Amino acid sequence: MTLEASKVTFGYRDRPVGTGLDLAIAPGSFTAIVGPNACGKSTLLRVLSRLLKPTEGAVLLDGKAIAHQPSKQVAKRLGLLPQSSIAPDGITASDLVARGRFPHQSALRQWSRADEAAVRDAMAATGTTDLADRLVDELSGGQRQRVWVAMVLAQQTELLLLDEPTTFLDIAHQIELLDIFAGLNDEGRTIVAVLHDLNQAARYASHIVAMRDGAVYAEGAPAEVITEATVEAVFDLPCKVVPDPVSGTPLVIPLGRAQRHR
Amino acid sequence: MRRHLVLRVGGRASTRTLLRAFAVTAALAVLTVLAAVIALGLGEMRISAVDVVRALVSDAGTAIETVVVQWRLPRVLLGVVFGAALGLSGAVFQSLTRNPLGSPDVIGFDSGAYTGAVVSIIAVGSTALVIPSALAGGIATALAVYLLAYRRGVHGFRLIVVGIAVTALLGSVNTYLLLKARLWQAQMASVWGAGSLNGLDWSDARNGTLVVLALLVPLLWLGRRLRMLELGDDAAAAMGVAVEPVRLALVVVGVSLSAVVTALAGPIPFVALVAPQLARRITRAPGVQLVPAAVTGAFLLVTCDMVALNVPPQALPVGLMTIILGGAYLVWLLVAQSRKELR
Ligand SMILES: Nc1ncnc2c1ncn2[C@@H]1O[C@H](COP(=O)(O)OP(=O)(O)O)[C@@H](O)[C@H]1O
Ligand SMILES: [Mg+2]
Predict the structure, then answer these.
(1) What percent of chain B has pLDDT over 90?
(2) pLDDT tens digit string along B144-203?
(3) Which domains does chain B have, with CATH numbers?
(4) Cα-flanking dihedrals φ and ψ of residue A218, to 5°?
């Protein structure tokens, strides 16, 4: 399955974000989108998941304009974890995960065996099976985020768009979640994630898209994109890039004022 | 796992609910039927429950049948149907606004309908045009509140604040109109303004029930989408819900459910506010609970009407009973809230 943005111009009524942007998501890839705050990463994900209609250009799913496909059909192929979602009061983890089955259900078929199996599998894959009966409000940040990921997984889509899935988590929980994504990617799902930690992006992603001011500044394999020049240009941050001693991928060492003047 | 009740017919039809929610709702439905039977027996002519049931299913003699079926049944039936309609309407609005205060009576519908009614009574000099004017007033107010609160989609808190402001404004308009009106007009308007099931006959019962049933059809389709909207607009849209059209449709259906009641009975406040919250607490189920809210609303309205009719020395309009109910609920809510804050 391919997802492609072709010359899309997009933004909000009073605020254009990007112009004529091209981006292709390779099937089976793990794509990380990086870039400074407010550069348009979330907006781009919303365009890719047909939540926001581009004013020009089109988003193509397997070559066909996504805007012209029934949205429930699209939702069976492409899942999105928004940057912020709301858990209804008093909902348990398993009930929340079950809501991810909506695109597969109908007025008549509200809880099939396939629904049951999908919820079970999604919770197993995210290690949330034991949390099934816990209230989502009462979970720790890491647990809660895994439950939300399970909800999107229960949607059983080939492609997952994840907006800052690791933000607000401690480093151990970030790695735990990234390992889950890597596992899903190994099983054949295409992953697109907005990540803030460049080192994690370089280690886990097969493809990196660096954005600045609503445009793709550079994209390619981690070693090509995560360079001193690109990081400085995209984030306005001088840095040194060395090989990660464990994985060999680029490791960014930012230079603060003190290091710069040495 | 919290226990669920799963029902499957072949591979095609299936549904699931929380076992506790199902049991509580079923029990409340039984209580509602019991209350209805008792209500049918009460009045100047006391009729035993056995005779009431006999009059309903077979025959119990013409005199009893006339009293039970012709005189009392339309009122009790409308108590059930209107209570359910108000419960649903409140559940829809509270879910859309994500706020336990976001019910149609709080956000301006009732006072708009009252303004419409008062204007028509003063202009026409009779209650001939009260129904269409009240509907027009209520719906225009609801739309105005919706539009005033619209900013890149409608958000709950804005809707409530705008609704309360508009309600206050209309309140003073209503007072002004009543002061300007002739005494008999003001009296007529006040009678209409205290919502009541008094004097409703079989043709009202038939019309009211049909309209409410017709509104249940779109709600069946919209209900599952309403649950998805609770996850936030982006999450709902990502799963295939057409957020803005669905939300507008829900507002229309929710207002219409309140409008039928107001048109035929006048404003009956607080049932829409209280029923969904009570339903949530007794079922302990997450998010919006349409069926439990409907059953709770039916139970509340039938019971309130029975008490209003039979307990005070002189029968009261049910709208006064539900105001007492709502007042008690709001006090309880405030106390519970301040306790939470003190903790
Ligand atoms: N709903 C919205 N309406 C108007 N402008 C928005 C909205 N959401 C985001 N923006 C603006 O669009 C720009 C891009 O935002 P966003 O895509 O959220 O950035 P990022 O995810 O990269 O931090 C920002 O300037 C932001 O203020
Ligand atoms: Mg963002």
Answers:
(1) 42
(2) 888 888 776 566 678 788 888 998 999 899 889 888 888 888 888 888 888 889 888 999
(3) 4-338 (1.10.3470.10)
(4) -155, 150
Is B46 within 8 Å of chain A by CB?
no
Provide the strand spans (E) within chain B.
Answer: 4-9, 13-18
Residues with CB under 6 A from ligand 1: A 12, 15, 17, 35, 37-43
| Contact across the interface for B286 and A89, Cβ inside 8 Å | yes
Specify the DSSP element, H or E, that contains B72.
none
A92 touching chain B per CB within 8 A: yes
Sign for the CA dihedral angle at A250, A251, A255, A256 comes to positive
> A1-77+157-235: which CATH topology?
Rossmann fold (3.40.50)
Distance of CA B274 to the CA centre of its chain: 9
Residue B128 C-alpha from the chain's centroid:
24
CATH 3.40.50.300 in chain A, residues?
1-77+157-235
State the pTM of this model: 0.91
* B67: DSSP letter: I
Query: Exposure pattern of A204-223 as b/e (b: 16+ CB <10 Å)?
Result: bbebbbbbbebbbbbbeebe
Q: Hey, are the CB atoms on B228 and A99 less than 8 Å from each other? A: yes
Q: Is A165:A144 a contact under the CB 8 Å cutoff? A: no
Q: What does pLDDT average to over chain B?
A: 88
Distance of alpha carbon A136 from alpha carbon A124, whole angstroms: 17
- Alpha helix segments (H runs only) across A76-227: 93-99, 113-125, 141-154, 171-186, 198-204, 222-225
- The packing angle between helices B318-342 and B290-310, to 10°, is 120
pLDDT at residue A233 greater than cutoff 60: yes
Atom of ligand 1 nearest to the CA of A15: 5
